[in-house]
Amino acid sequence: MLRQRILTALALGLPALALVAWGPNLLVLGLVVLILALASWEWAGLAGAPSVPARLLIGAAVVIPIAILGGVPVAGLHYLLLALALLWWLVVLLILPFYREDEARARGRFNALFAVAGIVTLVPAGMALVWLHALAPWLVVYLVVLVGLADTGAYFAGRSFGRNPLAPHISPGKTREGLFGGLVTVLAFAIVVAAVWGLDPMDSLVFVLLSVLIGLVSVVGDLFESILKREAGAKDSGSLLPGHGGILDRFDSMVAAAPVFLAGLLWLALVPFPVTGP
Questions:
Q1: Which residues of the chain form beta strands (DSSP E)?
Q2: Is 190 left (phi over 0), alpha (psi -120 to 50) or beta?
Q3: What is the pTM (predicted TM-score) of this model?
Q4: Which band of pLDDT confidence, cut at 50, 70 and 90, is reported for residue 274?
């Protein structure tokens, strides 16, 4: 399974990262729209959308705003949506400790609340990724690698040292030791990148702290998708990616990390503010 996951990641991930690093913003917008169209299809299925038209409607509610917001200069609406995304993830963080699965709940029925949550989750994520790319393509590459390393570090640390469950009611396989391992991996990577990019000491400090925060936020996105899958009675969001499950299974951490990372960069003045779009 691990070998299959690595091969899939190399076959799909490296070309996508190359496109992000050197491709024009419009092409990256198309890639983001494609990925989130697939993710919204899976999300709609987990929410119990009763038909193909219903899934397509939910998908359209995700990709059309992303396409519009990503194709026009950054304005007040972008900042408003970014602020709402931060509020949304704060709410998610606060409700995670109180979640308990209802074994008596019927599975497979359409859950309108989860369908709306998908739109609220995916639209700001897509907008943030395109916005980040317009600022500096390597910021997106950094974020993708950072989130991947957080997940990888947590996986190996959890397998080697995991004893104490992190969120047993949501994802019993995740451990506090795994979380710590992921954050240590993120910390080391952020320190190296700050040095390579030649950031001054103060900027390096806030950049590293922001990166560690993003490592934590990525776990929130992962756990939120785990709740969605529990409510749907599904192990994976789909089967499109061999060894990984669905698109959403690989993108769940990113949807939380992207808007928080962008907001942090802007707030900490690590990028110009305000900024025009593509």
A1: 165-167, 171-175
A2: alpha
A3: 0.92
A4: very low
